[in-house]
Amino acid sequence: MLGSKISRFSTQLLLPSASFLALGKGNAQDVLRLRSQLYDEEGGRIDVESHYLDFKYGLTENTALGLRLAIDSLSGMTPVGSHEDAPADTPLEDLEWEFQHIEDERKVAVVTLEHEINDHTLSFEYAHSTEEDYVSNTVSLKWQAELFEKNTTITAGASFGFDEVRATPFTTILDDRNKDTYELTLGVSQLINTRTILDLTLGYGHSEGYLADPYRRISQTTTRTVTTPFGSFPVTDTFTEPENRPREQDRWVAKITGRHYFPTIDAALSGSYRFFANSDNLEGHTFELKWIQQVNPKLSVTPYFRYYQQSGADYYRPTLTNSGIDGHGRNDGIGPFYSSDYRLSAFDAITYGFSASYELNDSLTLELQLERYEISGRNARTPDIFFPTANVISLGAQWTF
């Protein structure tokens, strides 16, 4: 059984940016980068093994071509949001929640073309990914300008995604569904002084179409009238329905980042705050601190800590029992809406770890990253068994030539 939404969530917080050209300004050098990563949830939950190949090639002095190829392999157990038969007065912690084994593989290809014109940079990117149950195509445009003797950098971008959610024997949809998305971003990076940089980024996104997870379900213990050839009878039982989310969603993002360099110890401190909100009344706050330490001319080490807090979506509930909402099973994006996906609940998450980079010589750099991810609910509405804890290890090598 497959779970495209699950696989994308498991990796989206961990994967590097798709644009490989961001590795270095200018096109004087060609770059090849290999990277492997293992995301491992404890307790037999989800494992994601990822492999990337990135290549940047200078076509001319001012034009570069970037290519990314990636494969993500996923397997493990995950809660699907439903539970076994139980009386309506059963406490949440006593319900027997259903887990499902999933396996999936995602293949990704990203092509980027970047061109510099004086102090302006234009880039075009096309990304394509496939899974058995999901196909994604995204086109992105980006403009960047360096102003005031390169003390100020302005960045603007737009991306358009055209996705298809495919029906499989294990999904709650019987036919393929479409999902369209566009994102707009605007950013400013300002050099405050010779040691301090301040960045501000604003973003807006809109999605419409099939926005639910085709594997997510929700349970309800209630009495329903069942019609048979022998008549209609009331039946009290635990019924399971597919989740139903709105067909449209708006998103807003604001992020501010400050970086300060300490020359006497050859180190830098980076701190950021990111605010996220969407039209489902879900709000998220992310705080992050990084310390970048140059140990010697060849070795740099970066410990970091990230804290994330979010409120729950207005239609999130672990079960429909005693909710006052009757499950309708339409799965059509028309209300009433409900989802038992724990990723829409109110929770806290912390991430901590470190990365290290070592230059073997002028052309070869080795990279290591170790990370710990822990998540916990912010109230008693969501069973603790839903929330995973994960370890991440990543190894990479980069050649310039």
Overview of the molecule:
The protein is mostly beta strands. It has one domain (86-99, 114-400): monomeric porin ompg (Porin), CATH 2.40.160. The protein is 2% helix and 62% strand. It has a 16-stranded antiparallel barrel. A hairpin with a 4-residue loop joins strand 13 and strand 14 (283-294). It is elongated.
Brief characterization of the structure:
The protein has one helix at 4-12, and strands at 31-41, 47-58, 63-83, 97-117, 120-131, 134-147, 152-165, 177-193, 196-209, 217-228, 231-242, 248-262, 267-278, 283-294, 299-310, 347-359, 364-377, 389-400.
Total strand segments: 18
CATH topology: Porin
User: Number of helix segments?
Assistant: 1
Which superfamily, in CATH terms, is the homologous superfamily? monomeric porin ompg
Which sequence of SSEs, written as H and E, runs from N to C?
HEEEEEEEEEEEEEEEEEE
Label the CATH architecture.
Beta Barrel
The domain tally reads 1
Strands side by side in the biggest sheet: 1-2-3-4-5-6-7-8-9-12-13-14-15-16-17-18
CATH C-level name? Mainly Beta
Q: DSSP strand (E) fraction? A: over 45%
Features:
single chain, 401 residues, mainly beta, Porin, 16-stranded antiparallel β-barrel, two-stranded antiparallel ribbon, 1 helix, 2% helix, 62% strand, elongated
Topology:
Layout lengths: L3 H9 L18 E11 L5 E12 L4 E21 L13 E21 L2 E12 L2 E14 L4 E14 L11 E17 L2 E14 L7 E12 L2 E12 L5 E15 L4 E12 L4 E12 L4 E12 L36 E13 L4 E14 L11 E12 L1
Antiparallel strand pairs: 1-2, 1-18, 2-3, 3-4, 4-5, 5-6, 6-7, 7-8, 8-9, 9-12, 10-11, 12-13, 13-14, 14-15, 15-16, 16-17, 17-18
